[in-house]
Amino acid sequence: MSRVGVVGIGHTKFGNLSQYDLGDVMAYAATDALKDAGFLERRKEIDQVIVGNMASGLFCHQSAVASSVISKMDMEPVPAELVENGPASGASAIKIGYMAVASGMADIVLVIGGEVMRKVTGWTGTEYVATMLHPEAEYDMGLTLPGFGGMFTRMYMEKYGLTERDLALLAVKNHANGAKNKYAHIQAECTIEAIADGPEANVVNTYVAEPLRMYSTCPVSDGAAALLLVNMDSPKAKLFSKKPVRIAGIASATDTHCVHNRKDPLKLEAVRIAAEKAYAMAGLSPKDISFAELHDAFSILELAISEEVGFFERGKSFLAVRKGETAIDGRLPINTSGGLKSKGHPVGATGTSQAVELVRQLRGEAEQGRQVADPKYGMAVNFGGFGNNVVAMIFAKD
Amino acid sequence: MAIDTMEQKLRPPEIPLKPYPPKVITLASGEKMVVREAKREEVGALLGTIYPLIGVPADFYDIVAVRMYSEILGWYRHRVANEFVLVGAIDGEIAGIVTSRHVTPKLGMSLHTLTIKRGLRVGAQLFAAKMEHHLDILGEEEVYIVAESPNGFKRWMIEYELEDRSPQFPEVRHELGGVPTYVLTRSLWEAVRDVKCTGTRPVSDTDLKASAKLSMPREYPQIPGFKR
Prior knowledge:
The structure holds 2 protein chains of 2 kinds. Chain A is an alpha/beta fold. In chain A, about 35% of the residues lie in helices and about 15% in strands. Chain A has helices spanning about 20-35, 55-60, 65-70, 90-100, 120-130, 145-160, 165-180, 190-195, 200-205, 270-280, 300-310, 315-320, 340-345, 350-365, and strands at about 5-10, 50, 80-85, 110-115, 205-210, 210-215, 225-230, 245-255, 290-295, 375-385, 390-395. In chain A, strand 5 (about 205-210) and strand 6 (about 210-215) form a beta hairpin. In chain A, helix 1 (about 20-35) packs across helix 3 and helix 4 crosses helix 14. The radius of gyration of chain A is 19 Å and the shape is globular. Chain A starts with a strand and ends with a strand. Chain B has one domain: Gcn5-related N-acetyltransferase (GNAT) (Aminopeptidase, 3-Layer(aba) Sandwich). Chain B has 7 helices and 8 strands. In chain B, helix 2 runs antiparallel to helix 3 (about 60-75) and helix 4 (about 120-135) packs across helix 6. Chain B is globular.
């Protein structure tokens, strides 16, 4: 297999972009990535475009967005296909792009992930996202993803002693990072006094799906992120202005669609398996990772995923958070971008956005105050469904 | 001040209202927002705060702003009976404004809620303070409420589970026209008060002093590039 590297990254600001067409939002990020790579003028030489998107048909009443983006960018006849894998669509698109390059089928692949969710109201959006659940056993019973997040959190609390304050500490950490990220949806810090300790915290940080509160739940966001992948072993690798960041490992796994079919619902098997495969592919282990972007659609997931990928013992990750080990200046910074909690979660864009953050950190291009010191390897986990479709990625600064 | 005879005829009869006791809320950002009644002499800062939003169609800011402008002007110039204006201020800078009216000892008429600082639930806190004034301070039994934006409908009608009285139109009718009228009853309020309404009293002298002089917002997230 050929080595695959990232030579260009692009990102829109996440937030409310509902006045824009989804194709325009994606084209903005893609153009940004091509400019970054110094390849905008030669964009018709790209072999393949892969677009990650979860639900444009529902959110925007629009289908076939991949070919739409090609026209927006005046890139015909470059082939373009869509990858849909729930909220893991972005990272799945990267994986498909990786496979195309590594296999030798393509040398240059543009991967774009994007979603515009705010053309509909928040509760309609939540209902649309819930369509990824099992149609009879879960969706029809009224389950939503915040509902699952709440139940998962409650189980974890009862088993391991996690408190609501621990979840608030995660929000404080991630908002501190997101406040410095120019792409973040919510660029504002929050304080532990205001959202957990103070007399008004119960109302200021209101419940969303008990015990999950507003500051333990990601916002509904719009946005896109894009990456230009290249075959590092091809002469074409020399066409780009930026040194590649290598994709050292990328893998995915699937768990049961129905959460109740799992022996232990607190075990996220697809996360563990995807991570193990990515480590094996990269020849690395958890202790080699310098920083990570973990899919904290609900804060509990940052903890649970960090345990499944081997950063911490099961049930111990929140103790590390209490000690500041996952803060930007800690021994293993997690969600340096602000995570989904602060940066936002346009579902189809999240995986590509996580990958863009890995590249920014490994290049040393993150904003002052949230740049990890001399990182070698970054890991991202993009989590779809309630853990039934998961992609793990490890990027390396060679 | 002497008021001429014609002006006396034009002014509405007023019922003296109990004052709203100020409170302070620590927002998620850690900033302290003092919520207090606006004073008549502060009308300049209030109107100056609202005015730029009259040109913002997103989220129906234009309608809310232009109506609130007229409500506060009417309050200042004695053309509305028993109106009160509450303001949320962070270090004196106006973060949000609410207007409302005491109609009878049993009925309140919620007018408008305008949030300038977004993302910190300022509007939700100010709306709750307005309901607190109606039901807990003024002792009314219910408040008529309408929404002019989807955000308002979500925040008030859905989150408070307001009683829909629109089928009783035209007997039950909010003052803002024929829009569907919803009602916060005392029992509904008592069911949600603890999770919707907060604030610490009394407000420290330092915080009161910080909010004593209101200033207009320097920036508006609703108007990119706006600088005062």
